[in-house]
């Protein structure tokens, strides 16, 4: 049914071309991304969720999403057209490129929203549209997106919300090709046809049945945190050094920072998010002038990423929920782990053992008994 509707719209676009106006085809389609304002301050995320008319409309509802572009990705045919993709021979999937403001919405929330607007248990298509070109997928652009996507998928699998296994793949993003002009904003320009298609496709019935009122909730449902505080808010909350370290991946001076020589018992939490990161029980004097630990207090609160900024390959350490830069980890530490987590004091807040209960970290008090 979707193909029939789209074909009639395509004929209208071809008619425009016959009058001397160029329909969006080939490289001309790149004009859609160029229309998005303040692109240099935005980030992008790419998702496939079946019919891109629906996926585009769903993501446009999110505050902080500046623009959504329908297109094709994941296949082998360069610059494919709609009919080619529909044939199932190009390997491409209908997908959307989401342009969002990271100060207003996080990638983690976009993932949470994605799961609530697709059928991730169907690898043969989506709802009434059949074929691999209509299946769901998450396309990551870097290691951080991949990790967050894998974690989000695991939370969905562990939630027990779905009755069947989650089959949505998490794939590296290749080239994203913008779709023809008549597909962009279809839900707004052809609202009657769009509503008819969406209703009869079975999409909304499935989503209501699974998620109920949570489908369009602006609060995360699968255990993710709300959007990260804006850069403006963080500049107010943090000192210039704390902001430079946590938000701009800076490094504080050695031997001239708050905790390098701190020997008091207690735990170290993320300066911004408060998530528990390290314990004094794992702290040691590395001679480097920065707080050093043999292991994290809570491994699930730490993420690692490849860092090539200083003409060498290092492993960056970030907090998982806060997504704040902490420092780096090296394999030259003492036993029993052989690891050295070299962390900036400016990224941490120390909570003495006697304050753990009052600060809401009482579960860690037994570590110091």
TrEMBL record:
InterPro entries: Met_Sox_Rdtase_MsrA_dom, Met_Sox_Rdtase_MsrA_sf, Met_Sox_Rdtase_MsrB, Met_Sox_Rdtase_MsrB_dom, Mss4-like_sf. Its EC number is 1.8.4.11, 1.8.4.12. It catalyses: [thioredoxin]-disulfide + L-methionine + H2O = L-methionine (S)-S-oxide + [thioredoxin]-dithiol; L-methionyl-[protein] + [thioredoxin]-disulfide + H2O = L-methionyl-(R)-S-oxide-[protein] + [thioredoxin]-dithiol; L-methionyl-[protein] + [thioredoxin]-disulfide + H2O = L-methionyl-(S)-S-oxide-[protein] + [thioredoxin]-dithiol. Pfam families: PMSR (PF01625), SelR (PF01641). GO terms for cellular component: cytoplasm. Keywords: Multifunctional enzyme, Oxidoreductase. Residues 231-353 form the MsrB domain. Coiled coil: none annotated. One of its GO terms (biological process) is protein repair. GO terms for molecular function: L-methionine:thioredoxin-disulfide S-oxidoreductase activity; peptide-methionine (R)-S-oxide reductase activity; peptide-methionine (S)-S-oxide reductase activity. The active site is at residues 51, 342. Belongs to the MsrB Met sulfoxide reductase family. In the C-terminal section; belongs to the MsrB Met sulfoxide reductase family. PANTHER family: METHIONINE SULFOXIDE REDUCTASE, PEPTIDE METHIONINE SULFOXIDE REDUCTASE MSRA_MSRB. Has an important function as a repair enzyme for proteins that have been inactivated by oxidation. Catalyzes the reversible oxidation-reduction of methionine sulfoxide in proteins to methionine. This is Multifunctional fusion protein. The lineage of its organism: Bacteria, Pseudomonadati, Thermodesulfobacteriota, Desulfovibrionia, Desulfovibrionales. The gene is msrA.
């Amino acid at each position: 049914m979707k193909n029939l509707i789209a074909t009639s719209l395509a004929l209208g676009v071809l008619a425009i071309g016959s009058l001397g106006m160029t329909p969006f085809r080939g490289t001309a389609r790149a004009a859609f991304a160029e229309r998005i304002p303040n692109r240099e301050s935005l980030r992008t995320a790419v998702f496939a969720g079946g019919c891109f008319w629906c996926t585009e409309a769903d993501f446009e509802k999110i505050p902080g999403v500046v623009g959504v572009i329908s297109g094709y990705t994941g296949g082998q045919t360069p610059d494919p057209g709609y009919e080619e993709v529909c044939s199932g021979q190009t390997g491409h999937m209908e997908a959307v490129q989401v342009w969002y403001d990271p100060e207003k919405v996080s990638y983690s929330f976009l993932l949470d929203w994605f799961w609530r607007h697709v059928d991730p248990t169907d690898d043969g298509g989506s709802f009434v549209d059949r074929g691999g070109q209509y299946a769901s997928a998450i396309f990551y652009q870097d290691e951080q997106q991949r990790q967050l996507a894998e974690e989000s998928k695991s939370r969905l699998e562990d939630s027990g919300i779905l009755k069947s296994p989650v089959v949505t793949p998490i794939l590296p993003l290749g080239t994203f090709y913008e779709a023809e002009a008549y597909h962009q904003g279809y839900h707004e320009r052809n609202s009657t046809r769009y509503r008819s298609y969406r209703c009869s496709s079975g999409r909304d019935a499935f989503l209501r049945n699974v998620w109920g009122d949570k489908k369009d909730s602006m609060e995360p449902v699968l255990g993710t945190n709300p959007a990260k505080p804006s850069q403006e808010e963080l500049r107010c909350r943090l000192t210039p050094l704390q902001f430079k370290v946590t938000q701009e991946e800076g490094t504080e001076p050695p031997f001239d920072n708050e905790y390098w020589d701190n020997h008091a018992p207690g735990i170290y939490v993320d300066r911004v998010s408060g998530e528990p990161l390290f314990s004094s029980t794992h702290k040691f004097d590395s001679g480097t002038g920065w707080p050093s630990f043999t292991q994290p207090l809570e491994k699930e609160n730490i993420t690692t990423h490849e860092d090539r900024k200083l003409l060498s390959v290092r492993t960056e350490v970030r907090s998982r929920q806060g997504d704040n830069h902490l420092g780096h980890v090296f394999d030259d530490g003492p036993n029993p782990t052989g690891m050295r987590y070299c962390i900036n004091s400016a990224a941490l807040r120390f909570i003495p053992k006697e304050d753990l209960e009052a600060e809401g970290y009482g579960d860690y008090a037994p570590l110091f008994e």
